[in-house]
Amino acid sequence: MASSRKRWSAIERELRAQHGPLIAGVDEVGRGPLAGPVVACAVIMPADRRAIAGVDDSKRVAEPDRVRLARRIRDAALAIGVGAASVREIDTYNIYHASTRAIRRAIERLPVRPAHVVLDGNPIRTLGIDHTAVVGGDARCYAIACASIVAKVLRDDLMRRLARRYPAYGWERNAGYATQEHIAVLDAIGGTPHHRTSFRAKQLELLFDLDGEMAGASSATASGSALAG
């Protein structure tokens, strides 16, 4: 676990001064995997409480610490909302619009209406909710980091449950991401209803392009050798 304590950021303090204490931090996980939904979390942390030690961008926190911190965040939060977008939505609307749906659902499911929202990444024009976007926000803003940890733990738990039904793909280890193990099983036995067909098609397209470039480079090298000889 990180030894430093993440503090409330200057961005969050300024937003509280403008909008009041009910600032919701929002983040989503699962944009990149080949399988499983994208999951978003919105969390309102109490402004009069010190930041929880060890909270950081979920990618920087070891799994056992994430689980422990997620429990502490849920216990301390004034409100938490969780939203998801299904594989079908990802394939139908693309990952950007599906992620926006998940984020909107998480905010709408907060039992307390936030005065303002701060989220990771770039502004989302279609979100329909007043918000401030912070690039790298999960590493810069305490409330966003809290949301990233809760979302990551929830999605990992879901993928472990799905792994019991589809054990071949190693989702309990890779959470649906494109590891060598995962891709090898996909090539051998195909996918499941929880695989994103649009991602698989794009991956194959990229691999085909890469193979073509490699073949072209090999051909050029061979031609160059022949000319040199």
Give an overview in words.
The chain is an alpha/beta fold and 229 residues long. The protein contains nine helices and five strands. A five-stranded mixed beta sheet has the order 3-2-1-4-5. Helix 3 packs across helix 4. The protein is globular, with a radius of gyration of 21 Å.
H-E string: HEEHEHHEEHHHHH
Q: What's the helical proportion of residues?
A: 40-55%
Return the structural class.
alpha/beta
Main beta-sheet strand count, sense and barrel state: 5 strands, mixed
CATH superfamily: Ribonuclease H-like superfamily/Ribonuclease H
> Order of strands side by side in the largest beta sheet?
3-2-1-4-5
Oligomer class:
single chain
C-alpha-based Rg, rounded: 21 Å
CATH topology: Nucleotidyltransferase, domain 5
Mean pLDDT: 88
First and last CA, distance: 59 Å
Broad shape:
globular
Give the uncertain stretches in residue-range form.
210-229
State the CATH class. Answer: Alpha Beta
CATH architecture: 2-Layer Sandwich
Number of helices: 9
Count of folded domains: 1
